[in-house]
Amino acid sequence: MNRQAQAVVMLLLGGAVLKASLGDLYLRYVKEGLRPFLIGASLLLVAAAVMTLWYELRRRTDPVDEHHDHGHGGAHREPRVGWLLILPVLGLLLVAPPALGSYAAGQSGTALGSGQTSDFPPLPGGDPANISVLDYASRAVFEGGRSIGDRRVKLVGFILIEPGGAQYLARIVLSCCAADGRPVKVAMSGDAPAGLASDTWVEVVGRYSDRTTTDPVNGEKIPFLEVVEWHEIAAPKNPYE
Amino acid sequence: MTTVDREARPAPHHPPEPPRRRLFGDRIGSVEVLAVLLVLLVVFRGPIAGAISDPRLQTWTTVFVAVMVQATPFLVFGVALSAVIAVFVPRSFWARALPNHPALAVPVASCAGVVLPGCECGSVPIAGSLIRRGVTPSAALAFLLAAPAINPIVLASTAVAFPRNPEMVVGRGVASLIVAMIMGWLWLRLGRADWIRLPHRPDLDDTSKGRAFWAALRHDVVHAGGFLVLGAMAAATINVVVPERWLLTLADNPVLSVLALALLAVLLSICSEADAFVAASLSQFSLTSRLVFLVVGPMVDLKLISMQTGVFGRRFALRFAPTTFAVAVLVAVLVGGVLW
Description:
A: alpha/beta, CATH 2.40.50, 2 domains, five-stranded mixed barrel, about 20% strand, B: mainly alpha, disordered N terminus
C-alpha cells in the first residue's frame, strides 16, 4: 500500500466518521457524549490525509525533496494491514448496520447490575411520568416500586418476543459503545401490546405491578408493568438508554 | 551493571527488505486497486446489504462498526500524541524526567499512566514512540500496561458501576499498578532487546519537523488502525458467538469462574472505560473473578495483542501477552483474596 493509497484510506475513514457524527448515525454505535471527540478525530484524519497528499505532490515535483527521501518508495515496506481500514469505511458508508435490537436483547439476560439500594429520587412530574425502562425496572426490583406508588409511568422501548413466546418491553443500555450493550427487560400485563413483531417500538403507559418473572438467560428478576394503554411509535433518535 | 546491558536499546535499524514484486508490474499501484475496489463495492451495494440481513451477521456488523467508531478518537489522539513524542520531544527530556536506573524508572512510569486519560488503543503507539526516543523498554512497557487501567476516567467509571462495592476501585488500581511494575521488572531481568522489533522509520529523522510529524501520524494510523480492525473483528465474533447462557454455567465454581472471566476479558476486548459496566452486569460471578476481568482486560486482549504484534513485532507479542495474562490473573486473585 503506497502513501497515496494510505492518504485516500485516511480521507475515507475520516470522512465516514465525520458524516456519521454530524448526523444521527453515530448514535446507533456509541454514546452521545463521544460526538465532539469523533468530530475532532475525523478532522485530524482528514488533515493528515491532505498533508500526506501535499507532501507526496511536492516530493514528485521538487528534485531537492527527492534527495531527502532515502529512496524508500519501493524499498521500504509500507504496512499492508492498512487495507483493512477500508472495512469500517464500508461499514459506515455502505452498510450502516442498524442499532442493536431484539436479537441481541434475546441473547443476554436483563442487566440491572448490582444496582442502587433504596434512595431513589422522586418520579419526575407530569401524568404519566416519563421514565426510562432501566429506571422503572430498578425501582420495581430494588425497592418494590415504593417511589412509584400509584402513579402512571410512560416507558419507551422495543418489543422482544423470546423463542418461548414470552413478550417483553426491552431497551438496550450502553455504557460506551454497542459492544457493551446490555438489555433491560420489563414484562407486561393488563392491556399489553398484542400482534406486534419483535423490534417494533412502542410507548407504553402503565402502573407498578408487584408481579415478577425470571429471565430465562441469567435467572435475574424481571418486573411486570400493568399496562393501561400503548401505541406504536417510530424508532427514537437515540435507540439506547 | 549487567541489568543495564541486558536492557540495551533495540536496534533501530534493520536492513531494508528487498523490493516486493508487484502483482501487475509497476503500472498499477495501490491507488488504482483501491479505486477499482471502491467502484465495485458501490455497484454491488444492494446484494452486499441483502447478504447481511441475517440477525447474527447484522449484530456482528453493528458490534464491529461500534468498536471501530468508539476506538477512532482514542486511536487518532493517541497516535497524534505519540507522533508529538517521536518528533518534538527531545531525547534529553526523557533522560531528565525518568530516574536513570531502569529498576526505578519502572514504578515512576507506571504511576505516570495516571495522566493519560485514554483507553488501551492509544497507549500502544505511545509506548512504541517512547522506546524509539530512548526510554528504557521496561519503563515504557510498564506505562503501556498501567495507563489504560489506572487513569482517572477508568477509575471513576468503575466507581459508578459498583456503587455498593467502592473497594473494587481500590482493588483495580492497586492490582493494575502491581502487575505493571512486576512486568516492567520481569522485562528488566528476562527481556531481550531483540524481541522488540520496531520497524525502520527513516521518516522520523526528516529535516522538516512538520513533515516528520504528519508522516508519523499517517504511518501509525494506518498501521495500528489496521491491527485494530483485526482485533475489532475478533471481538465482534466473540460477542455474537459466545452465548451468555453458556458462560453462566461456570459462575458457581470459584476456579472456573476466575478463568472464564479472565478469558472473556481477553476475547471481548472491551474498552477499559466501559468494562466496569459489563463486569457489574455479570452479577452471578464472584467479586474476585470480576476484579480479574477488570485487571486483565486493559492489559491483554485480542485488540491489544494484534496492535502489539504490529508495533513491536510477533516475537514480542508471543512472549509478552501470555506472561502478562498469567501475572495479571495471579495478582488480581491475591488482591481479591485480601479484599474479600
